[in-house]
Write a structure and sequence with these properties.
This protein is mostly helical. Helices cover 82% and strands 0% of the residues.
């Protein structure tokens, strides 16, 4: 039992690192998945739904990345970073819940672990995205 708990903690840590790396793509993925489900339910078929999902995810990522790169005001960049980081926090929560569902017998402790894991993923994604713009060094003479 202790070995399973230690392995689940290690797996949670590894998956939180993966979620940190992929946090930028959580929002476009969720939007694309929702658009694909809507298209499939309205009768577009599997291929049409897949195309709708891929196109909508690409457009969502492109628009948000363009906004993030062109905005210079720190408050507006923070708002766009929050829009990106919120789905990452939800994904981190779901990730930890999926791992700890069988390993942690107490519902209260499972929710605590899930909230902490989701919080870490969301805050780390926010910190990664809301970092100040790099300044270019002055040319050497």
């Amino acid at each position: 039992m202790v070995a399973v708990m230690l392995m689940s903690v290690a797996l949670v840590a590894v998956l939180c690192v993966v979620a940190y790396k992929l946090a930028v793509y959580a929002l476009p993925f969720m939007l694309g998945l929702t658009a694909a489900q809507f298209a499939y339910q309205t009768g577009s078929g599997v291929i049409g739904a897949g195309l709708v999902g891929v196109v909508s995810a690409g457009v969502a990522f492109g628009i948000l990345a363009l906004l993030f790169e062109t905005l210079r005001t720190p408050i507006l960049r923070l708002i766009v970073a929050l829009i990106f980081a919120a789905p990452a926090a939800v994904a981190g929560y779901a990730l930890v819940y999926g791992i700890t569902k069988e390993a942690v017998p107490s519902d209260i402790w499972r929710q605590i672990f899930c909230l902490v894991g989701g919080g870490f993923v969301g805050v780390s994604a926010l910190m990664r995205l809301a970092a100040p713009l790099p300044t270019s060094p002055a040319p050497a003479r």
